[in-house]
Fold these 2 entries.
Entry 1:
Amino acid sequence: MESLKKRVAEFSQEAHDLYLNQSVPFLEGSPDPLQFYRDWIGPNKPCIIRNACSHWPALTREKVGSKVITVAVTPDGYADAVNGDRFVTPEERRMSFSSVLDVIEGKEHVGVFYVQKQSSNLLDELPELTDDLESHVPWMSDALGKLPDAVNFWLGEASAVTSMHKDHYENLYCVISGEKNFILLPPTDRPFIPYGVYQPAVYRQRDDGEFEVVNQSDSEKVPWIPLDPLDPDLDRYPEYRRARPLRCSVKAGEMLYLPSLWFHHVQQSHGCIAVNFWYDMEYDIKYNYFQLLEALSEVTRPP
Amino acid sequence: MESLKKRVAEFSQEAHDLYLNQSVPFLEGSPDPLQFYRDWIGPNKPCIIRNACSHWPALTREKVGSKVITVAVTPDGYADAVNGDRFVTPEERRMSFSSVLDVIEGKEHVGVFYVQKQSSNLLDELPELTDDLESHVPWMSDALGKLPDAVNFWLGEASAVTSMHKDHYENLYCVISGEKNFILLPPTDRPFIPYGVYQPAVYRQRDDGEFEVVNQSDSEKVPWIPLDPLDPDLDRYPEYRRARPLRCSVKAGEMLYLPSLWFHHVQQSHGCIAVNFWYDMEYDIKYNYFQLLEALSEVTRPP
């Protein structure tokens, strides 16, 4: 078992030596679809594309102020995150776009607000924007031979945090204004990333303004990552010492290609506006190998 | 260890369930480079392309008869194969192309002859052919963004066999005349494929016509696959029962895309002429994962 654990750790090391970059590289302008597939999607490596979405218009209160959108509200900015022995999701509140902008612009409020609904909210909730914003990224759709499965809109306060997780999507994350800050870990670092299984719960703001956590007792337990990469508890999760997180900042007009199954933790500048495109990943040989790595990671981790 | 072994076997099973085909599919005509990358190279899946090399001319005695080429000669057709406790390579003989054609056409001889030298022999030994034959496959070079590393020429007797092995190349195998028969195993079946380490040796025909095996005592031992997929010794290698070989026949005018790291065993019709293009593989995440699988395969196999 010790030799297996050692071999798995060597595997993660080899990934960095063989093909991963020590920082996230930049490309200039919209790439050629085939070259992008060959250099980034196939090898499952992140990059930032500059001058790729700078022609998108600013969102105005005039245009969409009266539209009602879904906002995630939490006491501390941590939506979809482990809190003690529970996995707590935010209170979802329906508000006008104008009211959200009021909060962003400093109107007194309780809790942290984040427009972050991940169910194609851009097209569902703000369809008028798709006249201005593109409904897909043409070179990415060409590369993958399909349209995005979801287009999501993000707008929130500086203290809103997306806890570390991975998605089953090829992700293009476009910053329209402000700045997003990512901590990224490759799938090959999976052996160093702890998972637990948690009781699902949801925040609910009481009439007195305080938040309570309400168990969703009819829901199945949720596997999630308890580790906070901003302040990792290395006594509890010593394997994480071997992980090699990449940090990157994505600025207005830039687009992060976040490959499928990469772990990511996200923060942002106050009022940052972003749109991301989720393209379904392929359940191919890389996914097959990742599943094996997941199993090995659980086998070789001390309980 | 038993549960690890079980998990590794499940992994190979999942590969077949998730994305592998039960037979090798056919494409019609030269594919679009991006689509070919996305559908076959990226996912590391073989296919046969029809009407892809039918415009290549026949080779004539008039044109290249006097050219001297390298021929592999063995007593039994097994070049580069395990024989007892040794890995035996063929006697390499320099002959005119005409003399090889004489052998193919039935002239009495001892041993089995195979033009199979894998060091870009087409360009080195028969450069005049490259006027007629293409020196690369344009859509494949476009897809991979590079030219082939080697172009090899194959011509041999029906009893010449290529023993099971894998290559670190993306391989396009074009049959000009006759037929090649492949047994293919995906890299994910690695856990079921036995490897041994063998003393290198070489065949040498004595003056009396008999072949002897001469140890290359100054050479390092060679890892190779002792199993013959035509007649697998399942008492000795019981794991091979779980392997799921694909068989395919590639006929004149057809081209097999044989992905990197796929195990293959090759036979052919008598006098079959073929040209193959080796493009360097990428040492990327798939290779990284395969290296881990190799290590697991050795750990979980009974000694």
Entry 2:
Amino acid sequence: MLFDSEKLGARKGEDVIRRLKQHPPNLWYRGKQVTNPCSTHPFKNSITTLSSLYDYQWKHPNIMLMNEGGRKVSKAFSVPKEKSDLKGLGKALIKSAQFSQGMLGREPAYLNRSVSCFSACSNFFDVGGSNFSSNVENLYKYIRDNDLSMTHTLINPRQNRRNDPNFQLDPTVAAHITKETDSGIYINGARLLATLPFADELAVFPSRLMSMSEASKNYAFAFIIPTSSSGLKFICRESVDYGLDKNNYPLSSRYEEMDAVVVFDNVFVPWERVLCHRDIDICRNFYDTTGATAHIAYQVVCKNIVKTEFYLGLVSLMIRGSDLDGFQHVHQKMAELWAGLQTMKAFKTASEAGARTNVFGMLVPDWDPLDAARFIFPRLYPRMVEIVQELGASGLVALPTKEDLQGPLREDIKKYFQSARLEAQDKIDLYRLAWDASLSAFAARQIQYERFFFGDPVQMSSRIFRNKSCSEAMHRVENFLRRDVQ
Amino acid sequence: MLFDSEKLGARKGEDVIRRLKQHPPNLWYRGKQVTNPCSTHPFKNSITTLSSLYDYQWKHPNIMLMNEGGRKVSKAFSVPKEKSDLKGLGKALIKSAQFSQGMLGREPAYLNRSVSCFSACSNFFDVGGSNFSSNVENLYKYIRDNDLSMTHTLINPRQNRRNDPNFQLDPTVAAHITKETDSGIYINGARLLATLPFADELAVFPSRLMSMSEASKNYAFAFIIPTSSSGLKFICRESVDYGLDKNNYPLSSRYEEMDAVVVFDNVFVPWERVLCHRDIDICRNFYDTTGATAHIAYQVVCKNIVKTEFYLGLVSLMIRGSDLDGFQHVHQKMAELWAGLQTMKAFKTASEAGARTNVFGMLVPDWDPLDAARFIFPRLYPRMVEIVQELGASGLVALPTKEDLQGPLREDIKKYFQSARLEAQDKIDLYRLAWDASLSAFAARQIQYERFFFGDPVQMSSRIFRNKSCSEAMHRVENFLRRDVQ
Amino acid sequence: MLFDSEKLGARKGEDVIRRLKQHPPNLWYRGKQVTNPCSTHPFKNSITTLSSLYDYQWKHPNIMLMNEGGRKVSKAFSVPKEKSDLKGLGKALIKSAQFSQGMLGREPAYLNRSVSCFSACSNFFDVGGSNFSSNVENLYKYIRDNDLSMTHTLINPRQNRRNDPNFQLDPTVAAHITKETDSGIYINGARLLATLPFADELAVFPSRLMSMSEASKNYAFAFIIPTSSSGLKFICRESVDYGLDKNNYPLSSRYEEMDAVVVFDNVFVPWERVLCHRDIDICRNFYDTTGATAHIAYQVVCKNIVKTEFYLGLVSLMIRGSDLDGFQHVHQKMAELWAGLQTMKAFKTASEAGARTNVFGMLVPDWDPLDAARFIFPRLYPRMVEIVQELGASGLVALPTKEDLQGPLREDIKKYFQSARLEAQDKIDLYRLAWDASLSAFAARQIQYERFFFGDPVQMSSRIFRNKSCSEAMHRVENFLRRDVQ
Amino acid sequence: MLFDSEKLGARKGEDVIRRLKQHPPNLWYRGKQVTNPCSTHPFKNSITTLSSLYDYQWKHPNIMLMNEGGRKVSKAFSVPKEKSDLKGLGKALIKSAQFSQGMLGREPAYLNRSVSCFSACSNFFDVGGSNFSSNVENLYKYIRDNDLSMTHTLINPRQNRRNDPNFQLDPTVAAHITKETDSGIYINGARLLATLPFADELAVFPSRLMSMSEASKNYAFAFIIPTSSSGLKFICRESVDYGLDKNNYPLSSRYEEMDAVVVFDNVFVPWERVLCHRDIDICRNFYDTTGATAHIAYQVVCKNIVKTEFYLGLVSLMIRGSDLDGFQHVHQKMAELWAGLQTMKAFKTASEAGARTNVFGMLVPDWDPLDAARFIFPRLYPRMVEIVQELGASGLVALPTKEDLQGPLREDIKKYFQSARLEAQDKIDLYRLAWDASLSAFAARQIQYERFFFGDPVQMSSRIFRNKSCSEAMHRVENFLRRDVQ
């Protein structure tokens, strides 16, 4: 039986490695298949990091784990009913993000939130004569109780600017259903953009941008399958971890999540793995009705608080270390970062304060603050990075390595690379970190990631324009125009 | 006895006018004393507006008033103990700001919050051997129970960039104590910048920026006196209400608050009116220890929510009226405004969620979200105004007046000034409002007011830099540098 | 004969007044016709300024005038052949702009440039069987030799976002030809936006945004008629000159140009006054083929150099007067202004250096630098204004008037309003000017004027996108991709 | 004799390699000395590129070379007398920059300009009793006639924010004179930041930021010595060329210039190599009096024109390739880039138009446009990079490699990675280039390089504030205040 397994609950790092060795994802890198990612660059470091995160949850069991059917499972799978549940979840998500300074944007908690919501609202998946609610519940339990990691993919490749995959030059480019049997469906085509492709499972969730037509139904589905499924190929981008040492690349060498295009080469998906099948209506309302959009955004805002705090701490150390306290423009930059942090924190708090129980009985954080957070953070984050660049200045360029400190020139290094208040070694450590947070290829990918996390910012503005009712505000101005202030 | 009066509680508009006629403030405009401001330009309109605000509170008694000793008083004088009190206060403050679309930045509620805090924390005024707590309480009750309006002044004029008034070229320029008798103190010199100078009372509160020296003590005081006190002169700036009609100047003709420099020409202040006397320590901690800074900022954030909502409504009507829905850059501008509104709302909510009871038993809203709000709003507001300018474009310039609509060319006007979805009359009404909110001298004074509301933004950044502890964030980065992620 | 007149050449101020009194333009203000604008608010001050500008040219005859047929005429009518001509013209245009600190954006020189170009390239007006070249030449000589001032109008009113006037809800809204006789044509409808409507002549030039259709031809024309023509109505916007004194309103009381919508009520245009008739082709190429676009933009860049210099001088005086020299952020602001000035100067120089003779033998300044200048200035100018606001801070609000300095409080004013390095009187003068350049309704109209001078900035970007060939740059990158660096 | 050599004039690539093999610079990388940089990562690729640049000049001899004493030498060594000389030089500099798309900021032409200026103004080096003019001339001829490449270093390391090297915690940190003999001087200490450290010669030029004191004289010198000199050590930063293939790293693998801190370990400098010795006055005026600042800035603006054009071409290809022509925000971004290019071009043209002959008879381009260019470009360049990031979006992340195109998945790649108007291969080529120009560590180092090219932007603003006379602009405003418009 498909979901038969040990169900030991929250895993440790060694469990993660063991499973990936048994079921290696179908990763392709630089034209070659990587059959043993756990020990092969550029996946080795990333998988080590991922496994450490699983160990980390056991170091903070009170915050990060919860009891479920006699075992401990990750709190990222929780379904909050009360505001106290939601705040407890928030603490777990923040703790988890602190493991990677917020740099692992797609740590498992991110997708755990979505399957938890789907399961809590499983009745939704039975609308219109569908009958997928039990699949949703079973998949959720399977993932939760085996503490599996997921990657996912939402977007259809496009050759032109029309959104519907059926109206592209070549309608077979986007992943679509090509066959249907008693035991399942067959998928061909491609999907963008699976981050963390060395996870255990691949969640293929619907793209919302589809027209309502018969032809579009072949693109309207959702399922979750193992990343090692036959016919699946993850075509990875060039890594931003260059396989260099952890001392000089403190972030790149740890938190490269990798992104991949997923190719489905006649991939078979058993019915048990299917959440939605040829149903455009369900696809369109998938995230919102189940509260998944809000819960995912809540995880993201928790992560972004941690990430912003990291930059604030980094910048504060640079200011102190390089004796920049006396400059007004430096104060201004620190204050900007600080205000950005407060903004993200306030959005989190406001989403908790306004949380409401949905029709399925699950508490859903208030959407408007979270939507504003995801509008604003892509503007804040590139500026944070820029602040590190501006404060670090040539100090981020004229920077030797750890090896220099240990080589024949060590006395020169000690003498010539000290700063106002830091020994050379500490200066180098701090500034290599600042470099990796602002000037490395890793740093740049983080910028790109945050800027497009929730899609094209231009389209996001249009979505806000269309979806937010300003009728009360308009009404107030109309009243004033009628000299009828109330 | 000084504070003897009717104590009728919350006033109506006619009470306001009657009192101002009996005790006209010492207003000077364009070189002349204005002896009857209630019927003289440029104060007439403003005083009418102020009196309407007092009527308005009686239209919303459940929201804006509370019971106190058998009478109704304004909720702006409340001292919250529970979070529900604070939220109720917030509702009252928002309702009050809606009266003027947030354009009356110094409506009485603003200063009511500070005297309420002082009274709730009156013991603070007895530190160091002082004995002013009963004055503080009596003044508070007097103002509350007579529902008086206040203007105030905080800042010493400077001729150079040193902050201390004693180290200016001419140390007699800043208001200072020149004599002390059994019955009170005498003040000479000037103070900046009393907004709403046609209020009933003038609160003279300490400037925090003083050095600790004997000579500075003469500048270290706080008191509240009637604006009609002998020797007091309010030298007003040029009005931005040009005395023109309300149709074409819908905001300017209503919400001009006026700003004035206050000159003290041997003004006598009876001891009963004194809150602090020659005590630099108290001056420095005046606002923060009493929670007044936070409570004032809370009122301001309520006002700014209303003001932002006004711009959002205005812009939405312009977009609809001129058929601009199809442009992505228009969406972007609306989304910016919307996100700004969410930000301000989130700061309010977060300040409530994190409110804590201070040592005097008063609930104080959380400071960090409010401090961030006052850092960010001066950046948001000029942009809101700019958005109106950008969307209004030449439509804000090629604009006839109401009189044109009623004159011989009325048919031309109707034909040539209609827009996509608005009749000429409605177009003119809406765009005159947009003009007054973005391009009039009134609009510009609002920008300047918001930009410098809490002082020089450059200094505010430095204050944040110095006051906010980033030690936790720094600690986390240091741990990471030591490879010790927790 | 229509163009029969004295032809005395360059006028003096009294000539201007005399003519306007004889032929008052059809001005409507606040619903009433203004029959005597020379002595009626809000036109009185503006006309005085205009007439002074005509006196001013006689104070700088070597720079501003040239010989033409035995008389002196304004150099703004010159047709450059050599680069030295162009530079001489530039000097005249700069001198002229200095008269109003660049605040009179539509001083007569602006349109003089266009008719000069049309005349120099008059053959263009005969294309396609038309025969208007002699009209063009005669009109040019008439205007030049009588030194007339012009206002003009280019834009059709729109009720929807389609550009073609024929495809509006009501196609009779835009000015169009309704009758044609042997002696001329009749025009009905409206046009936007005539600035300086109290000029002598109205130039009605074609809007470029038209489709090629028979129905559109009725909107395809160009002519110049007296502003006093029968049936013409200038519906003026509300003035930003509030009729107050020149001391407190140093710019508003002088440089209000006024903007008006022009209504044609069966206006007769004699053939002699027509430049183009029902010819869409000519309308589309009108400005570019004749070099008028470039020559107008050259005048504008000269004006903008003067205007920027004015802000730089103003800001420098404020920095010196208020002792702000020690602040880095102040340096930054000054440096921004300075770099903006250099940018505008460089565009002027580059347009001269790259000037080329067109097919009609006229030297035309290089277009790309001028096009870039008109792209950039609308971004620079609002920032200049903002810099004045930021540096002036509360000093721009707490500001008494000249009358205060002369009234009973004069000693208070002298004492309390001095700044670091300025007596109160000088401080007030300087800061009232700064206020009028940054915070008055006049200042705001200047912002709006500059921002939309050459039309919607969004459309301007699209125009640049479509019109500029980047093929060389693309070719270079393609070569690099082919590893073929040349 | 020191300067004895073949003097063959303009070199070819093989000459460059030969000489570097004979005289390898003292490079240290990752704690180890690199004894054979021509064949060792990370210098190998860079040196290949440098040598190709020397071949390239021979492909364009008419533009890039000139006759000098019977041989061809690089035009970058020319001393312009006439404007036509200057324009010819500009053409050569632009051609040279096109070799590397402007990415080799410190290509030899950069420093060639400075030694050419020094030599043309060699008398300057004899002021105050010094007698270095013949050294200056000899060194210039030696470098020119052997067509040597130079790196240089200007900045003293600082441990605190005081500029003077003598007032640091440890005054022996900055490079200083420790001994003086008949044959030369001895130098100890360090200097920042030698870019292109694998050049033939190291120019050690004075830091301007010194106080006038006896103790400071030890830091006041200038000389040029071989990079292979005994005791010299170039401590290189971590490379941004990761030694990966040229296909996937089209820029990183070619244009990594490397930056190094220079350590002087008792380095002997023969008198013949000295340009200035213990003379603070000369140090302070070194660049300006000789016109070197202006000529260097002229080279830089030529380079920046090419670099901007590269981004404009790149962005245009991306827009075309991905069918983005229909979006207004895309037009806006292209227009921004285009206007930036025009700005840089206009500054170049204006500097030529205003060029003046200095006291030594050399033509010096006008300084103000060049100074403005170097103020503005550090603001433009990061925005250009951002535009590539914004337009490239997830297309810059979901990107396979060349190897993928050649591997077993080639058919998948071809199908799934085509864009609207590009085959997969061309799409990959273009987007890898865009990635390397905007998101690689190489791209980030370019940003940092441009941002700090001429030093801290904050200090640059202050320098402009102090050095630019605004007296004329101030005078004009003062005249206006006195109602005396001229």
